[in-house]
Write a structure and sequence with these properties.
The protein has 13 helices and 12 strands. The strands form 2 sheets. Strands 3-2-1-4-5-6 form a 6-stranded parallel β-sheet, sandwiched between helices. Helix 7 (221-233) links the parallel strand 7 (205-209) and strand 8. Helix 1 runs parallel beside helix 10, helix 6 packs across helix 9 (268-277) and helix 7 (221-233) crosses helix 13. The chain has 2 domains: 15-174, Glycogen Phosphorylase B (Rossmann fold); 189-360, Glycogen Phosphorylase B (Rossmann fold). The protein has helices spanning 24-40, 84-89, 94-109, 122-130, 162-174, 189-199, 221-233, 247-256, 268-277, 287-294, 308-311, 338-341, 345-360, and strands at residues 15-19, 45-51, 78-82, 114-117, 135-139, 153-155, 205-209, 237-242, 261-265, 280-283, 299-303, 318-322. By secondary structure, the protein is of the alpha/beta class.
Length: 361
């Protein structure tokens, strides 16, 4: 596909589509770039194509997915959702193809002038083109090389951290430097009330997040328990966040903590409400860690095979612990990476106390 030369002068878009389907952390990393686009095009219709399971990062469940922006949908005018996992499970079902057809028809019906693919996958590049947008922006070095075939404007992104790279892509669309505003998240009154019912009005707690995308990134549960026990001596209680399939892990933390920690399972909206109140977050390279960072909660990051310079806490007080023997790898191994096991509970507690002291000064 031929790349068109960029137009002279700043662009003007009336309707702009963001394509970033998943996952939680990657969507959160994209929010500052989209906030910069919103700032540059305040009157444009800004849409976002996202997986249904992560739509709560953009819009509360009981609020309309399109229309006037509000605290329940603060950033975008339209939320378009897909459910690719369910579609793949029943690819030959008439109902699946009907859902796909309806969704694409609704997407095309908006008449987007341009689309920005922040994900760099073949499926997201295709969806960006299928939106009907005449201009599709994407990275010159996307995650999946074939994606670039569907871009009309290829952008050499800059920066080390993925947030910086996303903002540089947005700057190309805007055609001027763009300070990255803070990420904006929906405020869900129902979720706020549920969290208050669960934990009361206090903010005197730390969130521990023992889960990880795969085993190599997962610091042992019993070590989180020992951290919770030590923090309890300082009067700080620990809430152990866990997602689907992670309850056994959370129970192991509770047990190792001698009940100093308490497990809590949240919806996305509830996790946003919970994290807003926390004094501290402790965990590895996961979506909840990136949420805490975006909400400017101090973070102790426990890193093994992934690179904190690229994926670490950004824009918040933080201490990242990573062994010198850790090597960057995204291999989905089931056992904790050797360097990760070099990080002791004592080192994590020391980092936590340092951050808490800094926040109290």
């Amino acid at each position: 596909m031929t790349n068109h030369a960029p137009p002279s002068g700043p662009p003007r878009f009336d309707r702009l589509l963001i394509v970033r389907l998943s996952a939680m952390g990657d969507i959160i990393h994209t929010l500052p770039a989209v906030a910069a686009l919103r700032q540059a095009f305040p009157n444009a219709t800004l849409g976002w194509l996202i997986e249904e399971r992560w739509a709560e990062l953009l819009c509360t469940l009981r609020y309309p997915r399109s229309g006037r922006r509000s605290p329940q949908r603060p950033l975008v005018d339209r939320v378009h959702t897909v459910n690719t996992a369910a579609w793949r499970r029943s690819l030959f079902s008439f109902n699946t193809w009907q859902q796909i057809a309806v969704g694409l028809s609704e997407l095309r019906g908006v008449g987007y002038d341009a689309a920005v693919d922040f994900q760099g996958a073949v499926r997201t590049a295709l969806l960006a083109r299928w939106s009907g947008a005449a201009v599709v922006y994407g990275d010159t070095q996307p995650r999946e090389n074939a994606s670039s075939m569907w871009y009309t404007r290829q952008v050499m992104t800059r920066g080390t951290h993925v947030i910086e790279q996303a903002v540089s892509l947005a700057e190309t669309v805007i055609q001027r430097p763009a300070p990255a505003p803070k990420a904006q998240f929906p405020v869900d009154p129902d979720a706020e009330n549920r969290i208050t019912a669960l934990i009361g009005e206090t903010s005197d707690f730390a969130i521990l997040n023992p889960g990880a995308g795969w085993g190599a990134k997962q610091w042992p549960a019993e070590r989180y328990g020992r951290v919770a026990s030590e923090l309890a001596k300082d009067g700080l209680r620990s809430l152990v966040n866990y997602g689907p399939g992670e309850e056994e892990l959370a129970v192991a933390v509770e047990t190792a903590s001698a009940r100093a920690a308490r497990k809590i399972s949240c919806s996305v909206s509830e996790l946003i409400a919970l994290t807003r109140r926390a004094r501290l977050f402790i965990g590895g390279d996961t979506g909840p860690m990136h949420l805490a960072s975006a909400l400017q909660v101090p973070v102790v990051g426990i890193f093994g095979p992934t690179n904190p310079a690229r994926n670490g806490p950004f824009g918040t007080p933080s201490i990242v612990l990573r062994s010198a023997i850790s090597l960057t790898s995204h291999a989905r191994r089931s056992e904790p990476e050797k360097g990760l096991l070099e990080i002791t509970p004592e080192a994590v507690v020391s980092a936590a106390r340092q951050l808490l002291q800094g926040r109290n000064e």
